[in-house]
């Protein structure tokens, strides 16, 4: 393992390596936000589908699901600050694309 991701950013556990110029190192929070949602897409999609099956509209089911995700993130201490906004948006887009297929 090289300690860097494919784009050259230093991974959070490779603290003995120097960050490359123009490539800020990952913090643990950013790294987990970018990788953590992937294993959760199955259970989240199941909850959404079950909410729809119980009679909720698509809009209501999505709002309930998003609210539970935000509540869960808040319980874990994650904060969606300016640093993590882009990472969270990429994770959300990836989740939407995966749900379409």
Short description:
The protein has 101 residues and is an all-alpha fold. It is 61% helix and 0% strand.
Element string (H = helix, E = strand)? HHHH
What is the molecular shape?
Answer: elongated
The residue-averaged pLDDT reads 78
Tell me the fraction of residues in β-strands, as a range. under 5%
Task: Please state the oligomeric state of the protein chains shown.
Answer: single chain
Structural class of the secondary structure composition? mainly alpha
The major beta sheet can be summarized as: none
| Computed CA radius of gyration, to the nearest angstrom | 16 Å
The number of distinct β-strands equals 0
Low-confidence stretches: none
Give the total of domains.
Answer: 2
What is the terminal separation in angstroms?
31 Å
* Helix percentage range: 55-70%
The number of helical runs is 4
Structural overview:
With 101 residues, the protein is an all-alpha fold. It has two domains: 1-26, no CATH class; 36-100, no CATH class. The chain is 61% helix and 0% strand. It is built from four helices and no strands. α2 (37-53) packs across α3 (58-75) and α2 (37-53) packs across α4 (82-100). It is elongated, with a radius of gyration of 16 Å.
């Amino acid at each position: 393992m090289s300690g860097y991701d494919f784009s050259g950013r230093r991974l959070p556990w490779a603290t003995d390596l120097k960050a490359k110029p123009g490539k800020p190192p990952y913090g643990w929070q950013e790294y987990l936000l970018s990788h953590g949602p992937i294993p959760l897409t199955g259970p989240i999609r199941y909850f959404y589908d079950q909410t729809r099956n119980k009679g909720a509209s698509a809009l209501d089911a999505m709002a309930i699901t998003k609210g539970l995700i935000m509540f869960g993130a808040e319980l874990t201490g994650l904060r969606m600050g300016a640093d993590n906004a882009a990472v969270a948006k990429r994770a959300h887009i990836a989740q939407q694309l995966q749900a379409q297929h």
